[in-house]
Amino acid sequence: MKFIRVFFIVIIFMKITISYAEKLSKIVIIGNQRIDNETIISYLNIDKGQDINISDLNFSLKELFATDLFSKITYEYNKNTLFVKVKENPIINRIALEGNKRIKDDDILPEILLKPRDIFTLNKIKNNLQIILGLYRANGRYGAEVEPKVIYLEQNRVDLVFEIEEGPKSKIKYISFLGNSFFSDKRLKSEIMTKESRWWKILSSGGKFDRDLLNFDQENLKRFYANKGFVDANVESSIAELNLKKESFFVTFTVSEGERYKFGNISADINFNGIKSELIKDAIKFKKGNWFSAKRLDDAVVKITENIMESGVPFIKVVPKLNRKEDNTIDVNFNISPADKKYINKIIISGNSRTLDKVIRRKLRIAEGDAYNRVLIRRSRVLVNNLGHFSKVDFNEIDNPEKADSSNINIYVEEQSTGEFSLGGGYSSANGAQGTFGLSENNLFGKGQRVKFYFLTSQRQNRLDFSFTEPFFLNRDVSFVSDIFTTVREFPESNYDNKTDGVGVGIGYVVGEYGSQNIKYSLENREIIADEEASSSVKAEAGKNILSLITFGNSIDKTDSRMDPTDGWYVSNTIGLAGLGGDKKYYKLGLSMANFESLFEDFAVFSLMFKTGFISGIGQNIEISDRFILGDSSFVGFQNAGVGPRDKENDSALGGNLYYTLTPEFKFDLGLPKELGIRGRLFMTAGSLSTIDTDSTNYYDDFSLRLTTGMGVLWQSPFGPIRLDYSHAILKESYDKTESFSFNVGTLF
After folding, report:
1. 384 Cβ partners below 8 Å, 6+ apart?
2. Overall pTM surpassing 0.90 (yes/no)
3. Alpha-carbon torsion 95, 101, 106, 111, what sign?
4. pLDDT by residue (tens digit) across 200-210?
5. Judgement on whether residues 286 and 368 belong to the same structural domain of the protein
6. Domain, as residue range, for 546
7. I want to staple 431 with a disulfide (CB 3.0 to 4.6 A). Which of 458, 600, 617, 695 is the partner?
């Protein structure tokens, strides 16, 4: 009976549905002005002669409304005719911004999704209003308000005006931490990128609130604690509260530190033959009893892998296994085993809108079809980054779906401006007040070529220089350099001027992975102009001469940075030979080497630098313009040319044929905010300068040891590097010229 009852209900429902279904014979559109009838009927998706019912009509009208062409739609169905009445949405005639000063129209209009001749809808207005507010929040103005105004025009058009009240810049007033007992708030603040607003940050973005940066700082703090032995530390939350005036944020981090751990026993399991234990021991920079550090552990894994790969084993896997003990120590066992063979399928470069692909590819140490080698990939990234053409360089590995044993390497770069106009000035104790003007382009036509025009004027020197460098000469990894210059330099401590006009050409090429060599030839037309007070030996050298010089150079650089190294070493030497034409005949040797090492978990950097040079004439004496001079930046604690041979009559510096300096230096943080870029340094320099070619004996010359020590401050200011030193000469000769203070201020601004 129940089944029969349900059956009759279904039959009745079907009859009702059928009774409401009628054949459509005509569609009438009412109210449309711009949009023709056929277009509207096509959106309805209903054909004449079709059986339709109420549900069909509702669905079709929803589809029509979804086009955003109409603000209102009604319908009436009467005698097989469908009447559809519409009210069209206006067309946007013009979009304008009012009240914006901090962010220009050209920065806002491209970001919003509305354009003239688009359909006007309220939802679109709301969405684009949020986009404009997002731009202001990204600019640090959380108090910005945007009000859209609609001006209705004839022919169903509107002008859309966004009235903007920019408000004050919302800065971070205060950052506090909850739950930290081992590290102070000040220490934790130095480890995050979110910074409090301070007066000295007016030239930077410091103090601006950024939610993404705040989330990133939570991970920064977790890594910091993990590197200090707190492996269970967690940052539970980061809350930013905005005051009522919407001008100040108060940021609070809540941390849970947990227990602190030390390294326990350290061991390694090697699962195949042929690997020397020294490769592993050399890579591990910690020992039992040191505080546990996740970074030092990761560095050890990377270094072990690199050492073994460099020894000739291309496929290696190093997995550290950790075992916690009740005495708060963690035993570490490095499991070293063969890795699955993997090869590079494709290398895909993207983001280089200007730089040619070949400029990037020629710096890669990997190629398609090579064995996957993380050492060479890391090296390739460093070399591409060292080009200086990109603000960002990312190497990403993506599995190849077609072959399990291969991967694609995606290289993404972000171009940065490589042209530079520089107008600068400053002061140095070597040159006095100085000004500079320069034009340069380091990526000419996207080919990596460099062109430079440079002019310097100072109390001691005027120089005009034009140079061009082709870094990939004849499609080989060989750089070609050409140089044209003119210089006038004064030497008041020796009572003469040196005027030089010259040209130079050179080539440089890579030797191995870290070495390089270069050959340079220069031809100079020089003139020595002696003052009346000059010594007799200087006056004897006055006049014009031509120097034809060829120089050979070699270098090996294993530092982690060219500009500010903190780890590694370098050594370079030069051999110069004059005499292939010209008036001068001599050979000149130079050697410099340095070693850098980070100390106290990157708190300080210790360096040891050594320099020496020697010049000797071939059948003739070495004149003063070719000798070495020592002092000021080359030997802090002595004036420029303050060390070495000196004329007894007029106290003129004569320079020397042989010199050496040895400088141990200790650079360290001063406890100031890192964004200030201020560091201190302690240094000591030992060295000497001696030997001149002259028949006269009326001069001082002692190849005795000179020794200075001192301290200084280094500031990487927005205007360029600034260095201020105080030094004291411990060992010196009576005729040497010393100075207690020396400084260099400013380069480009």
Report:
1. 360, 363, 364, 390, 393, 411, 413
2. no
3. negative
4. 555 455 567 77
5. no
6. 419-745
7. 458
